Amino acid sequence: MTRFALTLEWDGTPYMGFQRQGHGPSVQQAVEEAAESVVGHPVTLHAAGRTDTGVHALAMRAHFDSETQLSPFRLSEAINARLRLAGHAVAVLDCVEVAEDWHARFSCVGRAYEYRIANRRAPLTLEASRAWRIARPLDADAMHEAAQALVGHHDFTTFRSVHCQAASPVKTLDRLDVRREGDHIVIEAAARSFLHRQVRSMVGCLALVGQGHWAVGDVGAALAARNRCKLGLNAPPDGLYFVKAIYPGES
Asked: Which of 52, 101, 155, 174 is catalytic?
């Protein structure tokens, strides 16, 4: 039995998230069915993160075990062919053999997300469902200043979904940077792990600061409240991208 590690890219718009769902299509189901048609036996795909409905991925790491004799390159080419024929918005960017104790989720020591806001009045065409459009001008510098209150080891109850299954609301946020690129605001978040909808919740509050609805200090006050009712706004999934999973020995 060989363990294959995949790097996946997908447009989250047509999917109910990564994890299999009983009420709609998922990325996990799409890849598993494609892989099973190639290797000729059932497989279970494990990923570094479980993205929500509509959330995209640029380089999600995942793995499954198989008895196939195909090389990683041939395996990835065959899976991509099946995904393409089935009309899925998912692609295997890379495939390698890994040690049998390597696990896409449990071996992961860092995860990075990016959120994209299109700060313009005109409707989105090329970026429809791939960015959050905010027409009112945003102050990226104020957003970045406010974001620094969230960096570090905190109780993130305010920024945690009521459906979150994590044992504790305490997490360490390594980085939360906000910058302007033309008419876009880019927010980068990095941590070992995140709570359910933590990134979208943080982005929503930062957007309130950018629009002048909240003061810079209000984000820190919301964090200190440790109360979901103090959350100002939950950003939509459209602009959220899983960017990178980091493993020991990688940077």
From this structure: 52
